[in-house]
Design a protein that fits this description.
The chain is an all-alpha fold. The chain contains four helices and no strands. It has a single domain, classed as Orthogonal Bundle (Non-ribosomal Peptide Synthetase Peptidyl Carrier Protein, Chain A).
């Protein structure tokens, strides 16, 4: 669960300007809730690349990967080559 915590804390501090975990649910849409705009998505890309040492390809910057804590954590796990618990998907690291 550490990935979710890192992502949630980043979003809380950098977009919602709070440390209150109750202000952000893991499945809340960043775009629909007005939490993140297009510039914010680019900030999230830089955050996951720097924090987790992954490379985000241009065609991977889509809502399915970057629109909530839950989706971003799942995407990050896939990029890291970890098995995603609910799907048993695995992709090679790198």
């Amino acid at each position: 669960m550490a990935i979710e915590n890192l992502i949630r804390n980043y979003v809380l501090e950098n977009f919602l300007f709070t440390a209150d975990n109750g202000q952000l649910q893991d499945n809340a849409s960043f775009l629909e809730e007005g939490i993140v705009d297009s510039t914010g998505v680019l900030e999230l890309v830089m955050f996951v690349e720097e924090t987790f040492g992954i490379t985000v390809e241009d065609d991977e910057i889509v809502p399915e990967n970057f629109d909530s804590v839950q989706q971003l954590a799942r995407y990050t796990r896939l990029k890291l080559g970890e098995v995603v618990p609910d799907t048993c998907e695995r992709i090679p690291a790198g």
